């Protein structure tokens, strides 16, 4: 396992995103890793460029960062709802397809149906023994705090980004032995 970690997450949406990114990268360095933050990219935002062109540049630049990483550390906490940020989920899926080592961190180990209930309310056990939301849609209940498409390939760390880094470092030490 290498030492370049792509820092996937919704931190890019905070007003002080660059500060947060610098802090995450500093934490990586403390553990012997190189953090790659999505906003490390230099994007041409000159007047006259369309929003679509800028979006395409951001997408391509982040794809390159993921490709140049060895590990993904993804913030999989709920974002604007009961589920993680959709961009982060895409990045994890892309990294999975590339065979990258995947880690995710979450502060809440509640099961998915519990998160849906907290966010949307009115979750009940249906006649078939499955949890359903207020629209009658089934809610996955496989004993994970996140959808199985993330919960299976991603090593989930319940805790902070720092806890995630400690887990990555521990796994690397065990692999090296």
SSE blueprint:
Blueprint (H helix, E strand, L loop, with lengths): L3 E5 L8 H14 L3 E3 L14 H17 L3 E5 L10 H12 L3 E6 L5 H9 L3 E2 L5 E2 L15 H4 L3 E4 L2 H16 L1
Care to describe what's here?
The chain has 177 residues and is an alpha/beta fold. Helices cover 41% and strands 15% of the residues. The chain contains six helices and seven strands, in the order βαβαβαβαββαβα. The strands form two sheets. It has a five-stranded parallel beta sheet with strand order 2-1-3-4-7, with helices on both faces. A two-stranded antiparallel ribbon has the order 5-6. Helix 1 links the parallel strand 1 and strand 2 (34-36). The two termini are 13 Å apart.
Give me the Rg, rounded.
18 Å
Biggest β-sheet: count, sense, barrel? 5 strands, parallel
* Average pLDDT number: 94
Query: What's the number of helices?
Result: 6
Report how far the terminal alpha carbons are from each other.
13 Å
- Class based on secondary structure composition and strand pairing: alpha/beta
* Portion of residues within helices: 40-55%
Uncertain regions: pLDDT < 50 for 5+ in a row? none
List the secondary-structure elements in sequence, H or E.
EHEHEHEHEEHEH
